[in-house]
């Protein structure tokens, strides 16, 4: 089965366990991984089945953590060049924070405490640090953060679930997330409330997700990805599961209206909703995101939220 809007290249997973701050950089393990191999985490014995079924907070978290641990190497090999080590790219369209300024003018980032959620290899945090901000890069996957260590940077990396942030109230001026966490969680309001809690009054949270319209289409970059194949209104999660029926990857769908309601339910104000257009310079494909589809339907939605 072709997933409706799969963010990850081939297959993924995650868990709710709160992890300590990473202390032991396993730089060599990550750096010496041969191209194309996936060495982290335990192997999945057989090709999982893809289905649509309910998946709760704990199951989604556990499944996605495992997926990202197993597939981080492949993900970074496949997308690392496009992402750049220290660029801040909001999605496969290539919209760059340098031009978008969704977190505000870059010159005003100096000295700001910024939390990046679902940071992966922390490319965005590296860009923030280069502009004088004080980023903290948080991710559920230990292996993704090992890639952050491999690339380098002098800011904290925290292995934790976005639904249970290990920070005191009002610790950050800004928060951001480029496709991190929110496409994968069963309870997005919980994540939004956590982010609001750790933001200072007047703080801003900007997050990108797969544009909800993509759920109704096959996740294919070519013409086969242009015909509606399912209901936009069907919120049943996309689940890949092993032979025992255990989820090994989960993606959750929210309609645009759901996302707006989630933001409001978490007591944020929605100040902008950006739908980046596919630029002529970008000839790259990223899974189901392609110049062909990007010229016709949006692929990314970016929510700009503020707390009072
Ligand atoms: C598509 S990647 C995005 C990472 C990075 N922004 C990028 O563009 O490469 C999604 C990231 O979200 C992380 N993630 C998934 N669920 C999460 C959760 N509940 N809490 C924190 N991070 C999560 C994954 O481990 C993964 O690194």
Automatic annotation (TrEMBL):
Disordered: annotated segments: 1-62
Pfam families assigned: Methyltransf_11 (PF08241)
Domain Methyltransferase type stretches: 115-207
Signal peptide: none
Feature: compositional bias, Low complexity: 36-46
Coiled coil: none
SUPFAM superfamilies assigned: S-adenosyl-L-methionine-dependent methyltransferases (SSF53335)
Gene3D superfamilies: Vaccinia Virus protein VP39
MF annotations from Gene Ontology: S-adenosylmethionine-dependent methyltransferase activity
Highest rank taxon of the organism: Bacteria
PANTHER family (alphabetical): METHYLTRANSFERASE (PTHR42912), N6-ADENOSINE-METHYLTRANSFERASE TMT1A (PTHR42912:SF93)
Protein's UniProt name: Methyltransferase type 11 domain-containing protein
Lineage per the UniProt record: Bacteria, Bacillati, Actinomycetota, Actinomycetes, Kitasatosporales
